[in-house]
């Protein structure tokens, strides 16, 4: 009789696991909007002259691997960071744009109908830096532009809250580490924090 109850308990547990797996959306389309920040972009400049935040967005696809594991592929546009300084003698303008294409593994922890998740993976970072300087007294102008790509680690935290079978809310934080190239564009950690929606395809 004890063996029978054990077998029954195992069967029930397996049924619950397979039911949970079947109920988990297999493919999600995600879109999030928020704010980015370049960690050290303004370290050597007055905060009144430098802007290290901007509007940003991320779009991605999340594919179910098993109950608690997903593969996530996304594009993140971190926007543009700027330095603008001028006085009666000279003017300096520097801008840096950053974006990335990321592939991450995601571990989910269900909480009631919602879920929190952690992500980790690699991203191809695209960084463009432009600089312009002008000396008014000597009438000298100079400009430069650098573009580079790099393969960088990216980490993320977030949550999902389904509203119905097809649409849900999400919030997340992503950190792209050492984006750019130290020899050309320079390197910096760039973060994204935003909220958005998820659409279930399957």
From TrEMBL:
<feature type="signal peptide">
    <location>
        <begin position="1"/>
        <end position="22"/>
    </location>
</feature>
<dbReference type="InterPro" id="IPR011250">
    <property type="entry name" value="OMP/PagP_B-barrel"/>
</dbReference>
<protein>
    <submittedName>
        <fullName>Outer membrane protein with beta-barrel domain</fullName>
    </submittedName>
</protein>
<keyword id="KW-0732">Signal</keyword>
<dbReference type="Pfam" id="PF13505">
    <property type="entry name" value="OMP_b-brl"/>
</dbReference>
<feature type="domain" description="Outer membrane protein beta-barrel">
    <location>
        <begin position="10"/>
        <end position="200"/>
    </location>
</feature>
<dbReference type="InterPro" id="IPR027385">
    <property type="entry name" value="Beta-barrel_OMP"/>
</dbReference>
